[in-house]
Amino acid sequence: MVVSPEFLRRIAAVAAREALPRFRMPGLVANKVAGGFDPVTEADRETEKAIRALIRAEFPEHGILGEEFGAEGADARHVWVIDPIDGTRSFISGIPLWGTLVGLTDGGDAVAGMMAQPFIGELFYATGDGTHYEGPHGKARLATRTTETLSEAMLCTTTPAIFEPDRRSAFDRLERHVRLSRYGTDCYAYCMLAAGQIDLVVETGLQPYDIVALVPIIEQAGGVVTDWDGGPAERGGGIVAAANTTLHAKALAVLHSG
Questions:
Q1: Does 199 belong to an annotated binding site?
Q2: What is the pLDDT of residues 175-216, one digit of tens each?
Q3: Would you say 83 is a known binding-site residue?
Q4: Is 67 annotated as a binding residue?
Q5: Burial 184-205 (b: 16+ CB within 10 A, else e)
Q6: For burial by CB atoms within 10 Å, which of 22, 83, 113, 193 has the most?
Q7: Helix (H, G, I), strand (E, B) or coil at 35
Q8: pLDDT 10s digits, 39-82
Q9: Dist CA 140 CA 250 (whole Å)
Q10: 29: pLDDT confidence band, cut at 50, 70 and 90?
Q11: pTM for the complete prediction?
């Protein structure tokens, strides 16, 4: 199945319609977990509702998995995977490093995806013929960097605090090998990897809706994204994304060297 860029633009438009008026505005933030903080906002819920409605109308035979409202038709061959506001902590802090993620799987494999950041006005998407950018810099086809040496690489993660103790040690070990690391980027880091701005993204504890949309964006730009064991990334968990196979192999080697 081929997804048209126009349909992804329509998804981005309805997501912007719901999320933008609620960004940097006072609003109720609910906590989804006891003994911790996993925020959810009206923007998360209303954005996902709008995206689901658009997908149902266009592809009624497809399944949907979303962060806020769970799965419907999950046994379908084609399943849309939605994170309406990836980076809710940034959203509620007024920081525009959040985005709407929508991906499509075919038999479990991620084949198309988009990340839209409406406040900045950027859209990153992949539908099978490469990874594309639309935004203030115009339109462009994206490609990852050719960096093959860890000492020259730039690394991102949302925050080292997400890592369990053993994986935190592994991440710290990798961080000591790279030229520069940056935190707090959520989904935006993966798009910067596809755009050739950084070289590595390493995280853990991700859900499918956190990563499915980003897999095609990275792979179709020339990058590699797997779990920490080198397996498929679509199921989430620990994720290692790299600009190319050589750098990916070196990152995995360091992460497992302890």
A1: no
A2: 999 999 999 999 999 999 999 999 999 999 999 999 999 999
A3: yes
A4: yes
A5: bbbbbbbbbbbbbbbbbbbbbe
A6: 83
A7: coil
A8: 778 999 999 999 999 999 999 999 999 999 999 999 999 999 99
A9: 29
A10: confident
A11: 0.95
Average pLDDT over residues 96-115: 98
Ramachandran angles phi, psi of 225, nearest 5°: -140, 125
129 assigned to a ligand binding site: no
Give the number of other CB atoms < 10 A from CB of residue 87. Answer: 24
Class in CATH terms, 5-142: alpha beta
Q: Which two tokens stand for residue 26?
A: 């006072």
Helix 165-177 to helix 245-255 angle (10° resolution) is 130
Is the CATH number 3.30.390.10 carried by domain 150-255?
no
Can you tell me the distance from the alpha carbon of 14 to that of 219, in angstroms, rounded to the nearest whole number? 26
**Domain residue ranges in the chain:** 5-142, 150-255
Per-residue confidence band for 227, with pLDDT thresholds at 50, 70 and 90: very high
| Residue length of the chain | 258
SS3 128: coil
Is a pLDDT exceeding 70 seen at residue 103?
yes
Dihedral sign for Cα atoms in the order 89, 92, 96, 99: positive
Residue appearing with tokens 């990340």: 115
Q: Which residue has the tokens 């007024």?
A: 94
Closest by CA to 212, choosing from 105, 106, 69, 85, is 105
Distance in angstroms (rounded) separating the CA atoms of residues 135 and 154: 23
Quick one: which H or E segment has residue 133?
A: strand 131-135
